[in-house]
Amino acid sequence: MADxxxxxxxxxxxxxxxxxxxxxLASDVRVRVLTSGIPLNRAPKAEQLEIAExxxxxxxxxxTFAALEPTEERILRFANKYGSLGFQHGLFTxxxxxxxxxxxxxxxxxxxxxxxxxxxxxxxxxxxxxxQADNYRQLSEYVRWQGMDHVTVDSHPYxxxxxxxxxxxxxxxxxxxxxxxxxxxxxxxxxxxxxxxPAVVTVYRAVTxxxxxxxxxxxxxxxRGKKMALRFEPDNLHDAMWLQFARAIHGQYEYRSxxxxxxxxxxxxxxxxSNRKFCSDVCKVRAYRKRKNKQMxxxxxxxxxxx
Length: 307
Ligand SMILES: [Zn+2]
Fold this sequence. Notes:
Blueprint: E1 10-13, E2 18-24, E3 30-35, E4 49-52, H1 54-57, H2 61-66, H3 72-82, E5 92-95, E6 103-106, E7 109-110, H4 111-132, H5 136-142, E8 143-146, E9 150-154, E10 173-177, H6 178-184, H7 196-211, E11 215-221, E12 228-234, H8 237-251, E13 254-257, E14 264-267, H9 281-306
Antiparallel strand pairs: 1-4, 2-3, 2-5, 3-7, 5-6, 8-9, 9-10, 11-12, 13-14
Helix pairs in contact: 4-7, 4-8, 7-8
The protein binds zinc ion.
Residues 258, 260-261, 263, 278-280, 283 line the site of zinc ion.
């Protein structure tokens, strides 16, 4: 579903990513990272890359990302389909296949970085869903006031304050002061009791924090090349997904997870009927075939048992 305000193309390696152990630059330390293995010190050849517009093709990508289990296997599958997050550290080196004994600089992403990013997106999307649904019962479990001056919004409120969770799920918690809340909230805001505004300001803080100085507004030619158009250009896929989330909040869009592949997609009355169950025609046909095959195998079993 086209979002004409977002301009975002993203390259992914044609041969795909892989997990491997490589060196941290200028040290003997080895870490396991997701990499394309394409050297950073040379411009990649055009035939090595595939350019896509993941936000155009996947209208609910930020939600698909939020639902992703941060295992190596799932992260690899996600990266090969949509691209890497885009953290160009340039902090790693690996053996140079063309010159044994020497090393080449490559970019790589740690599983812990993916886990952190997924956990944060998942938590903020969850908060936003409760806010949208006016679900005060859920919010009151996760928003806890300490007196009248401070409130904590915590993904795991029942754990001791300093306890960290082991991956794959990370604890995401933030503390807000009454002063900060008062500057954003409506006059109805009640310090010491309110669970709605602390949740709203947590979402505001996270989303704005991910856009600030990472998404550039710019005037560019529109798709037909006929007039100038305003576009927001994110630096990388991670920022692009936060921008897509911001647009979802702005437009109060609704989403659904595909009945076949599980990918999230936006429900838009002008594009898709709101009773649409699949992200694409491919998934619709595949689900239909699966159902048919199942019916046929049940029928076969019935025939065999009655024979
Ligand atoms: Zn699908």
